[in-house]
Design brief:
The complex is a heterotrimer of chains A (318), B (132) and C (557). With 318 residues, chain A is α/β, with parallel strands linked by helices. Helices cover 50% and strands 13% of the residues of chain A. Chain C has 557 residues and is an alpha/beta fold. Chain C has helices at 2-25, 55-59, 92-104, 116-119, 143-149, 168-182, 197-204, 211-228, 240-244, 249-269, 274-277, 291-312, 318-321, 341-355, 375-390, 405-427, 431-437, 439-456, 485-499, 502-517, 524-532, 537-548, and strands at 33-34, 40-41, 82-83, 86-87, 110-112, 159-162, 190-193, 232-233, 235-238, 281-287, 325-329, 360-362. Classes of the chains: A alpha/beta (318), B alpha/beta (132), C alpha/beta (557). Strand 3 of chain A pairs parallel with strand 2 (35-38) of chain B, so a sheet runs across the interface.
C-alpha cells in the first residue's frame, strides 16, 4: 500500500487509477491508502459542476479543462453517471465530450458509476477526489447530475460549485428553485443563444435577490455562456477565480473545508457504528424476532433498545 | 464477498465511422451489468490506451470495420505493455477475415468476435477472464 | 362504394368461417406478423382496405405527379437502370484496372470508393491515416492520383459517381481538372457526388467541419454546378447509411427526406431559386430483404418528395418534384457465415430495387461481410442485375406491383408514418437541430438495438447465423491489401510536393483561406485553382479546418 501511495503522490497515472478503483470497490487497504495520502491533500482546488441532464455539463467541463491547461494547471475530472437500478450496469459516456484531451498527460479523466448511491455522489467520489488531490492535480472538477436528494451533496465535497442551467427547462427550474438555488456559488446559464436565456437570468437573479436582500455585494455571480459557440467562458473563468479569491481571503474557504471534514467525520462515524451494530449484534438476522416481540407487546420498545445497547457496550468494553 | 464490478472500455480506433456494432455491444454489456465506457469514433491508439489506464478498466473491446485491424489492434496491445498495463484484456470485433485471427491472437488480442456473434459469447469470454 | 362494402362483408365472413376452421386446428406460425421494420402485416389484403377513389391523387401514372409509380413514363421499357458497382481500393493504378474490367463486363457507370483518409480530408502521410490508406477505397492525395484513376477512361463517355462528402468540393474540383486535361469541358461531365454531410453526422461518421460551414460548402457547389457543370448531380441524399446504422424503412425515408429539405432550405436561404438546383438533387436508398416493404418504401418516398417540393417549396418544374434515386443492396444484411447465401439475398434485394423503380443500382458481392470483394464475386453481383434485367421479365412493365392491395397499403402506411416523423423534425427546427439534440441518432439506435435483441432471442431468423448454422472452414481467396500501400502513397506525395510550384500552391491556399472567412464568395473556383497546382487534399482541408474548426461527436447513446 505504501508503494501505491508513493506512486500516487509521484503522479503516476496507473497508480492514481488503481487508487480510485480501490476506493470505488471498497477494497481492502482503502482506509490505509487514504490515511497515507492525507498529508498530501488540501492543495487542489475542487470545482463542482452540477445541473440537470442535458444542461451541457460535460461540454462545459471540456472547455474548463482547456482553460486550466492554458494556465499551465494540471486538471483531473471525475464524471459521475447513474448505474442502472435493474442490472447494476452503466454506460459512461461523459468522457466522449472531453476526449480531445485524452492524449494530454496533464489531464486525467475518470468516469464513475453511481452504483446505487442516490444522486451518484458517494464516499467513493470523496475518496477519488482525495487521491487526485494527493496526486498533485491543481484543479479537480467533479461533474454530477446530483441535484437535491443526494447521499453526499456536491456542496459538501467541493470548494466551489457551478450550477449549470439552460433555458427551456420550464417547470424543472421552478421546482429546483427551492433547494437547488442553495447549491451554486456561480450560476451558469448555458445555451445563452437560445430563446429564454435572458428570462432565465432574470429569474435566477430575482431568487438570488431574496437570498441576499440585505447584502447585495455577496450576491452570487450569474454567467451567461454558450458552450457550443465558446462564448462567455473567459468571463466565467474570471468570476470563478474572483469567487475563489474571495472565499480564500475571507477565510470562508478554510471554514468550508473544516465543515466538510466535520460532515465527513459524522458520516463515517455513523457508517462505522452501523457496520459494528450489524456485525456484533447480528442486527439483520435478529431484527425479525425483535419486531415480533415488540408486535406481541412482550417488551417495551425503548427499554428493549436501551438495554440491548447497554449489554452490547458492556460486552465490548470487557 | 461480492463480485468485483468489471469495467470495460469499448473503443473505435482508426477513421472508421461504423459504430452500430460498437454501440450495440456497449449497450448490451451495460444491460448485462457491466460498467461500460464509450468514447466515440476516430480514437488514436494513444488515446485509447490513456483512457483505458485512467479508467482502470479490466477489458478493452476494439471495433473496426475498415480493414485496418492488423495495424491498429496490435499497436494498442503494444502501447498497453509499454505502460505496464498488459493485464488489461484486449478483444476485438468487426469485419475481420478468419485468416487474420491467428495473427491477431498472436499479437495479444485475446478474442476476436466477428459479425453475428451473440452477446452471450462475449459475456462468457469476459467471465472466463475474470480474476477477482 | 357499394361494391367495397360487399367485399368487406365477404372478407369478414371468410375470417369467421374459412379461416377460423383452419386456425382452430392449425394455429399460424406466429401470433402476429410484421415486416422487416416492424409494421404489422394482415393475413390477406383486399380492396376495401385501400381507397381506390384516391387513385389519381396518390398513385396516378408513371412520369406524372406525385410520381408514386416512377419518374419516367416508360421506365425500363426505354432503358434499363444504370448498373453501377461501387469500387475502389489501394492505389489509383489498381482501381483504374478494376474500373476498366467492370466497363468491359458491361457495367454502364463508374462509382468511386475512396479510402477513409481521403473521405476525412487527411493525406496519406498524416498520422491519422495509419493503417487506413487504401483500405476501404482508393487513396487520393493530389490531382496526380485522380489523373491515374481515370487514365484511359473518357470522362465524356462515362458517368461517375463519387462517394465523397465532407471534402466533396475538392474531389469534384479534381474531376473537373482531369476532364480539362482530357479535353472534356465542364458542361459535358456527368455524374454524382454524394455531398450529403447531414447523414454523416447521423450515421456514417466521415464529417470534418461543423454543420454551418458544411452547409455553405454544399450550397457553393449547388450554385457553381448550376452554372458550370449543369449535368452533374450535386448531391446524393442518402438513406443508405441511415438504414445500415439500423433504422427502420420508415425512418430511412423520413430522415433522408428531412435531410433533403434542410439542403433545399439552405440553398433557398443562400439566394438560389428552387427550380434552379432542385432537378440536380438525387437520392440514395438501401435495399433490404423484405421485398414488398422495400418496394412500398421507394414508392412512398417518391410521393413524399413530390408533395413536399410542390406544396412546401413551391417548385414549379416537375423535374424538381421528381425523386430520382440510386440503390445499393443492404450491406448489413450480408452474413460472414455461409457467404454464398448472400448471392440469394442480393438477388431478392435487386428485385426490390427494380420493382421499386430505381435509376441505378449497386449490388453487393457475397464476400463483403469478410473483406473487399474479389473480381469474381463482383462479377456474380453484376450478373445478378443482368439476370433480373434480361431474364426475369419484371422490367417489361412499369411499376408492376401497383394495385397490389398489400403493396398499396404498405406504401400508404410508410407515407404517413414518415410524414409524421418529418413534421416532428420540422417542429424541432429542422434536421440540423434534430441532430444536435441527438433525436435522430437515438431513434435509429433504439431501432437497431430492438432488431439485434430480436435476433439474439431468435424472434428474427438470419439464415446461417441464428438458425441453420453449420461448421464452416474459413473462406479463402479474399482480397488482400498490400500493407506497404501507405509507404508507396507517401513517396508519391513527397515527390509531387518537390516537383510542383510551391509558391503558387502557397498563394492559392492563402486565397482560399481568405475567401473561406468571407461568406459572399463561392469557394469552388478557388479550390479548382488549388488542385490544379497540385495542392493536396489534406492541405486544402487543413486550410478549411483552421477557418471553420472541426465537428466533434457529442451524443452517446
Amino acid at each position: 500500500m505504501r508503494d501505491l501511495a508513493r506512486d500516487i503522490v509521484l503522479g503516476k497515472t496507473r497508480a492514481i487509477a488503481r487508487g480510485i478503483s480501490l476506493a470505488e470497490n471498497d477494497s481492502l487497504g482503502r482506509e490505509e491508502l487514504i490515511d497515507l495520502l492525507h498529508p498530501h491533500t488540501g492543495k487542489a482546488r475542487i470545482l463542482g459542476i452540477t445541473g440537470p441532464p442535458g444542461a451541457g455539463k460535460s461540454t462545459l467541463a471540456d472547455l474548463l479543462i482547456a482553460g486550466e491547461r492554458r494556465k499551465g494547471h494540471k486538471v483531473a475530472v471525475v464524471a459521475v453517471d447513474p448505474s442502472s437500478p435493474f442490472t447494476g450496469g452503466a454506460l459512461l459516456g461523459d468522457r466522449l465530450r472531453m476526449q480531445s484531451h485524452a492524449e494530454d498527460e496533464h489531464v486525467f479523466i475518470r468516469s464513475m458509476a453511481s452504483r446505487g448511491h442516490l444522486g451518484g455522489v458517494s464516499r467513493a467520489t470523496v475518496d477519488a477526489i482525495k487521491v487526485l488531490d494527493a496526486a498533485g492535480f491543481d484543479t479537480v472538477i467533479v461533474e454530477t447530475i446530483g441535484v437535491g436528494q443526494t447521499e453526499v451533496d456536491i456542496i459538501e465535497l467541493t470548494d466551489l460549485v457551478l450550477l449549470v442551467l439552460v433555458p427551456g427547462m420550464g417547470d424543472e427550474i421552478q421546482a429546483m428553485k427551492a433547494g437547488v438555488m442553495e447549491i451554486g456559488d456561480i450560476f451558469v446559464i448555458n445555451k445563452s443563444d437560445k430563446e429564454g436565456a435572458d428570462k432565465l437570468r432574470t429569474e435566477v437573479e430575482y431568487v438570488l435577490g431574496f437570498k441576499y436582500a440585505h447584502e447585495m455585494e455577496k450576491m452570487n455571480p450569474v454567467c451567461m455562456v454558450s458552450a457550443k459557440m465558446k462564448q462567455g467562458l473567459e468571463a466565467l473563468e474570471e468570476e470563478a477565480e474572483e469567487w475563489f479569491q474571495h472565499l480564500s481571503l475571507s477565510g470562508l474557504l478554510e471554514q468550508k473545508r473544516k465543515e466538510r471534514i466535520q460532515k465527513e467525520l459524522k458520516r463515517i462515524f455513523s457508517a462505522k457504528i452501523h457496520e459494528l451494530l450489524d456485525k456484533k449484534m447480528d442486527f439483520y438476522n435478529n431484527v425479525e424476532e425483535w419486531a415480533e416481540m415488540i408486535y406481541q407487546k412482550k417488551v417495551q420498545p425503548y427499554r428493549f433498545i436501551n438495554e440491548s445497547l447497554h449489554d452490547f457496550l458492556k460486552k465490548e468494553s470487557e | 464477498m461480492k463480485e468485483k464490478k468489471l469495467r470495460i472500455l469499448i473503443a473505435k480506433p482508426g477513421l472508421d465511422g461504423h459504430d452500430r456494432g460498437a454501440k450495440y455491444v456497449a449497450r448490451a454489456l451495460k444491460d448485462e451489468g457491466y460498467e461500460v465506457i464509450y468514447t466515440g469514433i476516430r480514437q488514436t491508439a494513444e488515446s485509447i490506451v490513456k483512457t483505458a489506464i485512467q479508467e482502470d478498466v479490466d477489458f478493452v473491446g476494439l471495433s473496426l470495420l475498415s480493414g485496418a485491424h492488423n495495424e491498429l489492434f496490435p499497436k494498442i496491445v503494444e502501447l498497453l505493455k509499454e505502460n505496464d498495463a498488459e493485464d488489461i484484456v484486449v478483444f476485438g470485433g468487426g469485419v475481420i477475415p478468419e485468416e487474420d485471427i491467428p495473427f491477431l491472437r498472436e499479437k495479444g488480442i485475446q478474442a476476436v468476435f466477428t459479425p453475428g456473434t451473440p452477446i452471450k459469447t462475449i459475456v462468457d469470454f469476459i467471465e472466463s477472464q475474470r480474476n477477482d | 362504394m357499394e361494391e367495397f362494402k360487399k367485399i368487406k362483408k365477404a372478407h369478414d365472413q371468410w375470417e369467421e368461417t374459412t379461416v377460423k376452421k383452419v386456425t382452430s386446428r392449425f394455429p399460424e406460425r406466429k401470433e402476429t406478423f410484421v415486416t422487416g421494420s416492424d409494421i404489422p402485416v394482415e393475413r390477406a389484403y383486399y380492396p376495401a382496405s385501400f381507397d381506390e377513389e384516391k387513385w389519381n391523387e396518390e398513385i396516378g401514372f408513371p412520369g406524372e405527379y406525385p410520381f408514386t409509380r416512377g419518374v419516367q413514363p416508360t421506365m425500363y421499357r426505354g432503358r434499363f437502370w444504370t448498373m453501377r458497382q461501387y469500387a475502389g481500393f489501394g492505389t489509383a493504378e489498381e482501381s483504374n484496372k478494376r474500373y476498366k474490367y467492370l466497363l468491359e463486363q458491361g457495367q454502364t457507370g463508374l462509382s468511386v470508393a475512396f479510402d477513409l483518409p481521403t473521405q476525412i480530408g487527411y493525406d496519406s502521410d498524416d498520422n491519422m491515416s495509419i493503417g487506413e490508406v487504401g483500405k476501404v477505397g482508393v487513396a487520393i492525395d493530389t490531382l496526380k492520383d485522380m489523373e491515374i484513376l481515370f487514365d484511359g477512361i473518357p470522362l465524356d463517355k462515362v458517368s461517375t459517381s463519387m462517394t465523397i462528402n465532407a471534402p466533396a468540393s475538392v474531389l469534384l474540383a479534381m474531376y473537373i481538372a482531369v476532364g480539362e486535361k482530357q479535353g472534356v469541358s465542364r458542361d459535358q461531365l456527368r455524374g454524382t457526388i454524394q455531398n450529403d454531410i447531414l447523414k454523416e453526422y447521423i450515421a456514417r461518421g466521415t464529417y470534418i467541419f461543423p454543420p454551418e460551414p458544411s452547409m455553405r460548402l454544399i450550397t457553393d457547389i449547388f450554385e457553381f454546378c448550376s452554372q458550370e457543370v449543369p449535368k452533374w448531380n450535386t448531391i446524393s441524399i442518402s438513406g443508405y447509411h441511415i438504414r445500415e446504422a439500423g433504422s427502420t424503412a420508415v425512418q430511412e425515408v423520413a430522415f433522408t427526406i428531412a435531410d433533403g429539405m434542410e439542403y433545399v432550405n439552405a440553398a433557398v436561404k443562400a439566394g438560389l431559386d428552387v427550380d434552379q438546383f432542385a432537378d440536380r438533387l438525387s437520392f440514395f436508398f438501401n435495399a433490404h430483404n423484405d421485398l414488398l416493404e422495400e418496394v412500398a418504401k421507394y414508392r412512398a418516398a417518391r410521393r413524399i418528395w413530390a408533395v413536399i417540393m410542390k406544396e412546401r417549396f413551391k417548385a414549379r418544374s416537375s423535374k424538381s418534384q421528381m425523386l430520382r434515386f440510386h440503390t445499393q443492396t443492404g450491406g448489413s444484411t450480408l452474413t460472414a457465415q455461409q457467404p454464398d447465401n448472400n448471392i440469394v439475398r442480393v438477388a431478392i434485394q435487386t428485385l426490390a430495387a427494380v420493382l421499386g423503380g430505381t435509376q441505378s443500382l449497386h449490388t453487393n458481392s457475397k464476400d463483403e461481410a469478410l473483406a473487399l470483394p474479389t473480381e469474381d464475386s463482383v462479377r456474380i453481383a453484376l450478373r445478378t442485375q443482368q439476370i433480373v434485367a434480361h431474364e426475369s421479365g419484371v422490367a417489361n412493365t412499369v411499376d408492376p406491383l401497383a394495385g397490389s392491395y398489400y403493396v398499396e397499403e404498405l406504401t400508404n402506411k410508410i407515407y404517413h408514418e414518415a410524414m409524421a416523423y418529418i413534421e416532428k423534425i420540422q417542429e424541432m427546427g429542422g434536421m440540423v437541430k434534430a441532430i444536435e439534440k441527438g433525436y435522430v441518432q437515438k431513434e435509429i439506435q433504439d431501432a437497431a438495438y430492438r432488431y439485434q435483441k430480436d435476433v439474439e432471442k431468435g424472434e428474427r431468423i438470419v439464415v446461417g447465423v441464428n438458425k441453420f448454422a453449420v461448421k464452416e472452414e474459413a473462406p479463402k481467396d479474399l482480397l488482400k491489401m498490400d500493407p506497404t500501400l501507405r509507404e508507396i502513397q507517401i513517396k508519391k506525395l513527397a515527390h509531387i510536393k518537390q516537383e510542383r510550384d510551391n509558391e503558387a500552391v502557397r498563394r492559392s491556399l492563402q486565397n482560399l483561406e481568405e475567401a473561406a472567412k468571407r461568406s459572399d464568395v463561392n469557394l469552388m473556383p478557388l479550390i479548382i485553382e488549388a488542385v490544379k497546382g497540385y495542392a493536396s487534399l489534406g492541405e486544402i482541408c487543413n486550410v478549411l479546418r483552421d477557418v471553420y474548426g472541426e465537428y466533434r461527436e457529442s451524443i452517446v447513446l
